[in-house]
Fold this sequence. Notes:
The chain is α/β, with parallel strands linked by helices. The chain has a single domain (38-293), classed as Vaccinia Virus protein VP39 (Rossmann fold), CATH 3.40.50. The chain is built from 7 helices and 10 strands. It has helices at 28-34, 60-70, 86-93, 105-117, 124-127, 200-214, 240-250; strands spanning 38-40, 76-79, 97-102, 131-135, 150-155, 218-228, 231-233, 236-238, 254-262, 286-293. The strands form 2 sheets. Strands 1-9-10-6-5-2-3-4 form an 8-stranded mixed β-sheet, sandwiched between helices. The protein has a two-stranded antiparallel sheet with strand order 7-8. Strand 2, helix 3 (86-93) and strand 3 (97-102) form a beta-alpha-beta unit. Helix 2 (60-70) crosses helix 3. The radius of gyration is 19 Å and the shape is globular. It starts with 27 loop residues before the first helix and ends with a strand.
Amino acid sequence: MDAQPKKLTIAGQRTCRCDPSHLNCLTPKEWIKCQLGVWQFSYEKRDIRDKQKHPATFPIALARRCIELFTHRGELVLDPFMGSGTTLLAARDVGRNAVGFDIHPDYVALAHERLNREPLPSDPQLAQTHQLALHDDARNIPLYLEPESVACIVTSPPYANLLNRARLNKSRRGQARKNDQYHRVEQYSQLPEDLGTLELGAYAQAMQEIFARLLPLLKRRAHCVVNVTDMWWENQRITIHMAVIEALRLAGYELRNIIIWDRTNIVNRVGIFGWPSNYITMGTTFEYLLDFWKPE
């Protein structure tokens, strides 16, 4: 981590010719496809599926849709919990500048590797953007960026302490449960500043503090999309998405939309659990995309 962060020199102005009042560069036909409240995506070859590299990644296509929906070409996208750098790759695909932060040096290195391996877009206008992966705590991001410079936040923060326990693979069938993930603790680290070590109350407080610091960086009515899921712990549903909604409201954001990420097309060999007396929906089949914005 940089002991003395300096303000970044990175572009963030529109390079399109859209009407100033428009939210994005989408055509009406493209816009209407995004109006459905349930989204489904497939993974590409470029996506990371190996949980040894990163235990929780979303598809490039997911980040790309959010970025195209809530920004214009040339604008600046922020991912405060960058992980493997998926948001940065998606931003490059569609001609947006982007900066991502993570406290884990291995993930920052992975993001750099992915960005360096990817060829630049063939369209010269899309290729004239920059994507930066930086090693630092999300709490320090205001030291790097100017107020009202960010057009959109797209991120998937740690899901509280969901990964900080031995994995039992209850959603898998039979012997498929005992794969290389069985009984593994997939938590990113045990660093005290890592949100993945916190129980729900402390996690919500940390999320409120971090996003309160990020709010001044957003342009007026800029959107902030947070990907989260809930979890089961000791036979209780832990409603992480509700905690995140309340945390960001307290931080000054306004909730605009809740979109369901339908993951049924990427769930393999579903096992049975809870039968015949305890009905539990499979948490691996859907997640939440919580869409906030900075109020006027």
